[in-house]
Specification:
6-stranded parallel sheet; 196 residues; alpha/beta; 8-stranded mixed sheet; globular; 22 strands; 32% strand; single chain
């Protein structure tokens, strides 16, 4: 996989761009001026980030695996240490499928009824392959969503969710919080030992 060079990333005009950002040459980015990216973020092949008016905000230590999409008019936010497995789709906008309105972006807005609501993915969340997250959902810190799940409602912190629609299966362990503390201490020690 080839990644864009730092000079290429700077030319894209992101709202903000951290250190050690790896974006595949095969990823598609739309609305870069509304996208904030933290430190140590990797976005793999064939991902689509399409930022609407609300923008996209990615924290630090995030991985977005191949074929993922983050799309919609409202804000999509991923906090530190969160990640998406391959083919995850995050939507902050969705058409009305009831038949009471027309659908698709080529139809004038007066004939459609699009649901625009922000999506928030908390720290240490992991979303399994092929899962879909719809507008208005908040995934609490440490929640985990299984492969192929359809997330229609908020997920509790440190809950494990699976199914269509996604339902709480059980609680997730919290040891990862201790590991985060150790990781951050390691980073601090490295910066003290090697000041730039």
């Amino acid at each position: 996989m080839g990644f864009l060079k730092p000079s290429q990333l700077e030319q894209m005009g992101f709202a903000s761009l951290g250190q050690n950002v790896l974006i595949s040459e095969k990823a598609s980015i739309y609305g870069a001026s509304r996208i904030h990216i933290g430190d140590h973020v990797r976005i793999d092949d064939f991902c689509i980030l399409s930022a609407g008016a609300g923008g996209i905000r990615l924290g630090s230590f995030i991985h977005i695996a191949c074929f993922c999409s983050l799309i919609g008019q409202e804000k999509i936010e991923m906090e530190d240490y969160s990640g998406l497995s391959s083919r995850v789709a995050i939507y902050s906008s969705s058409d009305d499928y009831t038949g009471n309105a027309m659908t698709n972006p080529m139809v004038p807005a007066e004939f459609t009824k699009v649901d625009h609501r922000p999506v928030h993915i908390g720290r240490h969340c992991i979303i399994g392959a092929g899962a879909v997250v719809l507008p208005g959902v908040t995934l609490g810190e440490g929640s985990a969503v299984g492969a192929l799940a359809l997330v229609l409602k908020n997920c509790e912190p440190f809950g494990i969710y699976s199914g269509v629609p996604a339902k709480l299966i059980r609680s997730r362990e919290r040891k990862l919080l201790e590991l985060e503390t150790q990781h951050r201490a390691q980073i601090h020690q490295a910066s003290v030992s090697n000041p730039s």
